[in-house]
Write a structure and sequence with these properties.
There is one protein chain. With 283 residues, the chain is α+β, with helices and mostly antiparallel strands. The chain is built from ten helices and seven strands. The strands form three sheets. Strands 1-2-5 form a three-stranded antiparallel sheet, covered by helices on one side. Strands 3-4 form a two-stranded antiparallel sheet. Strand 1 and strand 2 form a beta hairpin. Helix 3 packs across helix 5 and helix 6 packs antiparallel against helix 7.
Length: 283
C-alpha cells in the first residue's frame, strides 16, 4: 500500500477513482494543448464512456471489491444493447483506470479484475460498393445539385479516403507531374475537438499506413487541376489544434472543402453514412 491509508484502499469507490483518472488523462500544457493525447476529443470520449457505461453499473462499488465475475457480468450486460466495439472501448477504459490506480504512485488498486474478461466478438461488415452504372447516376445527380459535391464524391471514389482526410487536403498537398500524373499526400486530418469544434491535426495518422500518398486516376486528376487553377493563396481563418481561431497569411485554401463549410459538410457526411441523406427530397 506504500504510503496510502488503508481505509483509502478498502473504502474508495470506483467513481471517485474514475474521476481522478479522468483528471489525470485530461491534463493540459501551459498553452492549453492536451498533455497525454493528440486531441481533446480523446479525453471527451473517455468521459462519455465513464459516464454512460461504467458509472451507472459499477461506480458505487468499492474499487477493490469488484471481482472478475462482476466485470464479466457487466460486459455481458452491455453486449445486449451495444456494439462490440463500444463494449470493448468501455472495457479498455475500465482496464486503464485499474492499471493507473495500481501504479505505485497511486497505490489504490490491489488487483485488476479486467485481465481475464471475455469480450464480444466483432462482426466484420461486408463491404458495400457502387456498380459503375450506379456511380454514373450518383455523380450526375450530384453535378446537377452542386459541382463541389460532385468533385468531393469523385475524390472519395478515386482515393478511398475518409471525409475527414479529404476535407483537410490543401493545394500544397498536391504534386502535379504533368504526363506522369497527379499525386496527393495525406499528412493531416480534420477532427471534432472539444465543444464540437472542427480542428485540423497535422501529421496525426494512427499508423504509418495512414500517411498515404496516392496517384489519382485521370478523371480525378483533371478535377484536381481545375480546382487548383481556381485557388489563390490568400488570408484564411482556420481552427488550429488549440481550438482558437488564428489568421494565417497566404495559406493555400483547402482544395475540396473550405474551412467555412466544415460544420455543414461534416453533418451531411454523417447523415450519408446512416443512409438518411439519400432519402431527402431532391437527393
Amino acid at each position: 500500500m506504500n504510503e496510502t491509508e488503508a481505509s483509502a484502499v478498502t473504502d474508495i469507490l470506483l467513481r471517485d477513482v474514475a474521476a481522478k483518472w479522468l483528471a489525470w488523462k485530461g491534463a493540459t500544457r501551459p498553452d492549453g494543448t492536451p498533455l497525454r493525447h493528440s486531441s481533446t476529443y480523446t479525453t471527451d470520449r473517455y468521459g462519455q464512456l465513464v459516464r454512460n457505461q461504467i458509472l451507472p453499473h459499477l461506480g458505487k462499488h468499492p474499487l477493490n471489491l469488484i471481482s472478475h465475475s462482476d466485470v464479466q457480468e457487466w460486459v455481458d450486460l452491455l453486449s445486449d444493447t451495444l456494439a462490440a466495439k463500444t463494449v470493448a472501448d468501455a472495457h479498455s477504459v475500465l482496464h486503464g483506470i485499474y492499471k493507473w490506480a495500481g501504479m505505485k504512485a497511486q497505490g489504490l488498486a490491489i488487483t485488476d479484475p479486467c485481465t481475464e474478461t471475455v469480450l464480444p466478438k466483432r462482426k466484420k461488415n461486408v463491404a458495400k460498393g457502387l456498380r459503375p452504372s450506379e456511380w454514373k447516376i450518383l455523380h450526375q445527380a450530384a453535378t446537377e445539385v452542386s459541382s463541389n459535391a460532385a468533385d468531393l464524391l469523385l475524390f472519395f471514389v478515386s482515393s478511398g479516403w475518409r471525409w475527414s482526410e479529404a476535407a483537410a487536403v490543401r493545394s500544397i498537398d498536391v504534386d502535379d507531374y504533368g504526363d506522369a500524373g497527379v499525386w496527393v499526400t495525406m499528412g493531416r486530418v480534420m477532427r471534432r475537438g472539444a465543444g464540437g469544434r472542427f480542428e485540423i491535426v497535422e501529421d496525426e495518422a494512427k499508423s504509418i499506413a495512414g500517411m498515404r500518398r496516392i496517384k489519382m486516376p485521370s478523371d480525378a486528376a483533371a478535377m484536381i487541376r481545375r480546382r487548383r487553377a481556381n485557388l489563390s493563396p490568400r488570408r484564411s481563418t482556420v481552427h488550429q489544434r488549440r481550438g482558437a481561431q488564428v489568421v494565417l497569411h497566404r495559406l493555400p485554401l483547402a482544395l475540396l472543402v473550405s474551412p467555412r463549410q466544415w460544420p455543414r459538410c461534416g453533418t451531411q457526411s454523417r447523415a450519408d453514412s446512416r443512409g438518411r441523406q439519400a432519402t431527402r427530397p431532391g437527393a
